Amino acid sequence: MTKPDAIKIGELKGLMAGNVLLPTDPAYDEARQIWNAMIQKRPALIARCVSTSDVVHAVKFARENALLLAVRGGGHNIAGSAICDDGIVIDLSQMKAAMVDPVACRVTVEGGATLADLDSATQLHGLAIPLGINSTTGVAGLTLGGGFGWLSRKYGMTIDNLESAEVVTAAGDVLQVSISENADLFWALRGGGGNFGVVTNFRFRLHPVGPNLLSGMIVYALADAKSVLKQYREFMAKAPDELSVWAVLRQAPPLPFLPEDTHGKPIVALALLYAGDAMSGQTLINPLFNFATPLGEHVGVQPYTAWQQAFDPLLTSGARNYWKSHNFTTLDDGLFDTVIDYIEKQPSPQCEIFFGAIGGATTRPAPDAMAYAHRNTKYAMNVHGRWLDAADDERCIRWAREFFHASAPFASGGVYVNFLTDDESDRIGAAYGQNYVRLAKIKRKYDPTNFFRVNQNIGPA
After folding, report:
1. Distance, CA of 429 to CA of 440 (rounded, Å)
2. In terms of CB atoms within 10 Å, which end of the chain has fewer, N or C?
3. What pTM was estimated for this model as a whole?
4. Pick from 396, 379, 271, 373: nearest CA to 325
């Protein structure tokens, strides 16, 4: 791989409506930063695209100059696939428009939009789709890996609501994909990650949501965690699809509704959203307040967009992050013992372990209906190692890995591809499951040279 000369770069600049940043440009260092501060790479150039045409030019430039190519949507991927060394980054962050058709209940959103961009546009009309839990996450990466969040038990995965997309292929062709057009590629995009092209826009089906919903958090001391988690498991087994409750174990942040003497102490928090009538929801969630004596709670009716941003302060850009993850079909008592043990010895105040309750509508499509295969998953667990000082890398990573191995006997064997770090290529088969062989064949058709390989990579069959 050779670096392109100034003449060729000048030609690309002349073709693009957006900017091309080089290492000598003042904006370059900021543009190459992504959410996970552990990933520090220096591309030869960053193509800040403002249109599909710009993306086509950048793809062709990368191919003609044999450049490694990375694609940046929100820049949130834990493995750092939004950036690369020495190659070219197609940066979609300027392409973030979301166009809502409230009559048809549809939205078309560009590939650089964040969850906040999409939520703010759709909530103007009291509409939404299932997205993640951090509003600065990119819509593209979330969707291509599957996508789930507070609305998923009611309305499915993000990909279950995707109706079509526009894709720039490795050949530089612009394809429209849907169930009736390039259907094999549409199947692969729904869970196959960034392996098949650059998605410049997505069209989703919307649902009536909000604008105000019952949501919030109930916090218990870690001493009560085993009992709380067992009751939580039984409660969720009977909960309607409208109710989503996640369990989060960590040190208590300085939340205003918690007594000051609990700040920094280990806790278990139940975070919830009810996607229905608030009065009905309040009756339904009343048992959650009686699992033990709460340290504090903050539950009420608030804007859906506010709840979508509630965890943003704990997930800001610029920290060092290392994740490990498992899927679960059930939560065993032995798993609870293990998670409590590791929370008691967590290496940083920002580390946490959460159990994201999905199930409900996410389990109803067949495992081979689209690339995302893990339809039996009831809980997705993420071991979220997070800290600020590089000197803490070794012990924080070791903590996450050791808990990952200790919890493995209770897991289903699958994993959510968006939670894989850059050192987990051995788990790609587990991420795609029974659909890997079909994905590899589609990869061979649309990207036979593995041009799109800065990702959790599927090699061409």
Report:
1. 11
2. N
3. 0.95
4. 379
CA neighbor of 194 nearest in space, from 458, 437, 461: 458
- pLDDT for 17-76, tens place per residue? 999 999 999 999 999 999 999 999 999 999 999 999 999 999 999 999 999 999 999 999
Place of tokens 């692969």: 188
Tokens of 51: 């249109």
Phi, psi of 208 (to 5 degrees): -70, 120
Residue 1 CB-density burial (10 A; 0-12 exposed, 13-18 middle, 19+ buried): exposed
- For residues 127 and 100, is the Cβ–Cβ distance under 8 A? yes
Alpha-carbon span 459 to 425, nearest angstrom: 12
What number of other Cβ atoms are within 10 A of residue 256's Cβ?
A: 7
Q: Which residues of 363-382 are buried (b: 16+ CB within 10 A; e: fewer)?
A: bebeeebbbbbbbebbbbbb
Q: At what angle do helices 225-238 and 333-344 cross, to 10 degrees?
A: 140
Closest to 453 in 3D by CA, of 195, 160, 226, 279: 195
